[in-house]
Structure formats: structure tokens, C-alpha cells
Design a protein that fits this description.
heterodimer; A: 115 residues; mainly beta; seven-stranded mixed beta sheet; four-stranded antiparallel beta sheet; B: mainly beta; six-stranded mixed beta sheet; five-stranded antiparallel beta sheet; 55% strand
Chain lengths: 115, 112
């Protein structure tokens, strides 16, 4: 099976702009989660989508939004970018492991730099 | 929200030495996962432990889930430079709808 893919891998934007990141989960996985990773804060949960519905949400401002399409592909959008939004944005698709347990499989991430 | 604390945050040792990384919480988790992440890449799932007291081995890596399912450890025997990376533990919340809580990570460096 192909893994989780994310596009683009690298992105440079200016403060005030908006950005859209894309994620294609592993075939058959219906859940997609997004995380922001920075050196100081570690992995911070943004939101999770399951069957086109947001199921969980982290503590991020409304500038961060997402959606999921009927084919399980997901996008996240950040509007009015701030310098502090510079980070590695990770997407993960999820399944239940053979022995139980909720497992996430991560994409390579999108490195966003805001200048 | 349940929290996971990893220790140590940074560890630098010589090739051939043994090490243990700890992941602790005051909360119970349904399951616990360990990931390894290399610079510029996403975390890669190493193992999932589900049952209290469970021990799993992956070559030179040994993972243990605490009896009360509140903590876990990762032990590496005879560390090699290829083990270098950021190790993350993640717990599946008992109350949450299939949601993972991540520790802050342990940055491991194995020097040749």
C-alpha cells in the first residue's frame, strides 16, 4: 500500500497570506489527523476528520481550518499567516492495529516558513 | 486532556551502550504507541502496546507497557548510530474518540 502523501513538501509564504496544504491518506483509511510540530512545542494536535466530519479539534485559533473530501483526502487551510505559524505540518491517517490500539501513520510533512 | 511526560528530553551516548527512555502519565491509556522521527520527515510507528505489562521486542529495542497502563519504557541494547532520532510516545485516550496524546519526545544521539 502507498503511504500517506502530503503536498507541497516545502512552502514559503509572507505574513498575512493564506495557505492550503493537502494530504492523501493510506487507501482504506477514513480518518485523517493534522498536527503542527515546532521545536519548542513538540507535536500539537490541530484536528481530525472522519468520513468528511470533524471529529476532534485541538486548541488552535479559527485561522486554522480543514476539510475532508468523500475520497478521504484532506486539506488544511491557514489564513492570515503569522510568523509563529512557521512549522512542520504533519498529516496522519489512522487504523486499528491487529492487536487493537489506535495507530497513526504519518506523511512526510509540509515545512511551512512564514517571512 | 491527558498528558504524557517523556524523559530524558535529550540523550547522547556512545555506540554500544544501553539506554532507556521513559514515558509517564497519571492517566490510564487504552494503548500506547512509540514512534521514531528523523529530521525533516514524519514520525514512523515502531510498536503498539495494548495490554498492561505487555513487553514487545523489535530487534535491539524492547518496549514495555506498565501494569496500570499509565507508563511505558523503551530500552535499546547496544545502541548504534542508526538509532539516532527523535523518539515519541503517544497514548490513546480512554475517554476520547480515538485520539492520541503525544509526549514531548526524546532526542537521542548515538556517537560512533
Amino acid at each position: 500500500k502507498a503511504g500517506v502523501t502530503q503536498t507541497p513538501r516545502y512552502l514559503i509564504k509572507t505574513r498575512g497570506q493564506q495557505v492550503t496544504l493537502s494530504c492523501s491518506p493510506i487507501s482504506g483509511h477514513r480518518s485523517v489527523s493534522w498536527y503542527q510540530q515546532t521545536p519548542g512545542q513538540g507535536l500539537q494536535f490541530l484536528f481530525e476528520y472522519f468520513s468528511e466530519t470533524q471529529r476532534n479539534k485541538g486548541n488552535f485559533p479559527g485561522r486554522f481550518s480543514g476539510r475532508q473530501f468523500s475520497n478521504s483526502r484532506s486539506e488544511m487551510n491557514v489564513s492570515t499567516l503569522e510568523l509563529g505559524d512557521s512549522a512542520l505540518y504533519l498529516c496522519a491517517s489512522s487504523s486499528i492495529g491487529l492487536a487493537g490500539g489506535y495507530e497513526q501513520y504519518f506523511g512526510p510533512g509540509t515545512r511551512l516558513t512564514v517571512t | 486532556t491527558q498528558l504524557l511526560e517523556q524523559s530524558p528530553q535529550f540523550l547522547s551516548i556512545q555506540e554500544g551502550e544501553n539506554l532507556t527512555v521513559y514515558c509517564n502519565s497519571s492517566s490510564v491509556f487504552s494503548s500506547l504507541q512509540w514512534y521514531r522521527q528523523e529530521p525533516g520527515e514524519g514520525p514512523v510507528l515502531l510498536v503498539t502496546v495494548v495490554t498492561g505489562g505487555e513487553v514487545k521486542k523489535l530487534k535491539r529495542l524492547t518496549f514495555q507497557f506498565g501494569d496500570a497502563r499509565k507508563d511505558s519504557s523503551l530500552h535499546i541494547t547496544a545502541a548504534q548510530p542508526g538509532d539516532t532520532g527523535l523518539y515519541l510516545c503517544a497514548g490513546e485516550e480512554v475517554q476520547g474518540a480515538q485520539k492520541l496524546v503525544f509526549g514531548q519526545g526524546t532526542r537521542l544521539t548515538i556517537n560512533p
